[in-house]
Amino acid sequence: MKFSAQKGTKDILPSEIYRWQKAEQTFASVCHSFGYEEIRIPTFEQTDLFARGVGDTTDVVTKEMYTFEDKGGRSITLRPEGTAGVARSFIENGMTSLPTPVRLFYNITAFRYEKMQKGRYREFHQFGLEAFGAEGPSIDAEIISVVDIFFKKMGLENIGLRINSIGCPKCRAEYNKLLKDHFRPHIGEMCEDCRERFEKNPLRMIDCKIDGSKDIVKNAPRLIDYLCEDCKAHFEGLKSELDALGVKYEIDPNIVRGLDYYSRTVFEFVSENVGTQGTICGGGRYDGLIGIMDGPATPGIGFAMGVERLLIEAEAQGKLPEKPSHVRLYVAAMSDAAKKTASKLCYDLRLAGIGCETDLAGRSFRAQMKYAGKQEIPYLVVIGDDELANGEVKIKNMANGEETPVKLDEIVKYCQDNIV
Ligand SMILES: [Zn+2]
Ligand SMILES: [Zn+2]
């Protein structure tokens, strides 16, 4: 029987893994430069965590979760996103008493049973970040600038920042009344989901995928016009902080985010490049989340970025990194005595952190040369009986053919200085 990868999953092969590693290293280093530390959370949690923390009216929770009963009869769910798990860990591990803001970032796989389409996977990768305990708009501007600097470090251009405020429970309650009055006479024309949202969370009717293009949705009152004084001041504060940083943005009243725990600031980074338009990163403030998870009321804000989506964008912009050559030197051996010297030399080189290879397959000298060429190993050294007798070899730069004589017992030092 031949096996194949499951629908919606994908192998990341050595031929492309360096792209992922470059993105991961860049993201980690940008996060570190702000004082964010990495957190690793479990792949699965109890199902209730997501029902509570993500919101049980969202598509993610109602339609897309990988939920199963384990052998102990517990309802388990593969994480569909990172925030709920990080928030659970934050509460459970006493991080609520740490000095604020508590800055955490993550690099995870997540799982959603979604309709198959190009670039969408059921097991997918996310970079994300959460900051807990900071109330004012400065932290909003900070996490937005993490993304902005990350894109710059990746060399990406034309990714627009869109911001909005979805207010607090106070202004949203007022606004929900207006929204219901607006939609009530037309509820029969809306999709089934919207009819349910009308009762539970009318704000989410604004970003309905089915009804979003209808005039009744486009002409709906905009929450940004009905913010309470505190929410208005917060949003103005964010705008002036972004202005001070020189981070450009547009205000987009239609960003509401699909998750119930968001409040005030919401934002998206959207590609404006032809062919790859779409959201790469989305985030926002969720001041109510820690409270509804029975933690002490703590403000929070975060974002998540789709790594698959990010790499498609990097490729479209011609900004994928070059494949690095981890193996820098090929040590060819022309005799049995030379093979022993070659093996010991490789051992010493690796101990010194220099990637190298020598033949293990009993290849002829010619076949060794052919192998080294095929692997595109950038430097070559040949050890034969003459080299052993003289105690000296030539190290050849394969790109320009240049040869440098080096004493056998100085090869490690030479390589450290010249070919790493
Ligand atoms: Zn408010
Ligand atoms: Zn709808």
Summary, kept brief:
This protein is of the alpha+beta class.
Descriptive overview:
- The chain is an alpha+beta fold and 420 residues long.
- It has two domains: 14-168 and 228-316, BirA Bifunctional Protein, domain 2, CATH 3.30.930; 329-414, 3-Layer(aba) Sandwich (Rossmann fold), CATH 3.40.50.800.
- The chain contains 15 helices and 16 strands.
- The chain has helices at residues 14-33, 47-53, 59-63, 83-92, 137-153, 169-183, 192-200, 215-218, 229-245, 289-292, 307-316, 336-351, 365-374, 385-390, 411-418, and strands at 37-38, 44-46, 67-69, 75-78, 102-111, 123-132, 159-165, 250-251, 263-271, 278-285, 300-306, 329-333, 356-358, 379-383, 392-397, 403-407.
- The strands form three sheets. The chain has an eight-stranded mixed β-sheet with strand order 1-5-6-11-10-9-7-8. Strands 13-12-14-15-16 form a five-stranded mixed β-sheet, sandwiched between helices. It has a three-stranded antiparallel β-sheet with strand order 2-4-3.
- Helix 12 (336-351) links the parallel strand 12 (329-333) and strand 13.
- The chain is elongated.
- The two termini are 45 Å apart.
- The model has no long low-confidence stretch (mean pLDDT 94).
- One zinc ion is lined by residues 190-191, 193-194, 208, 210-211.
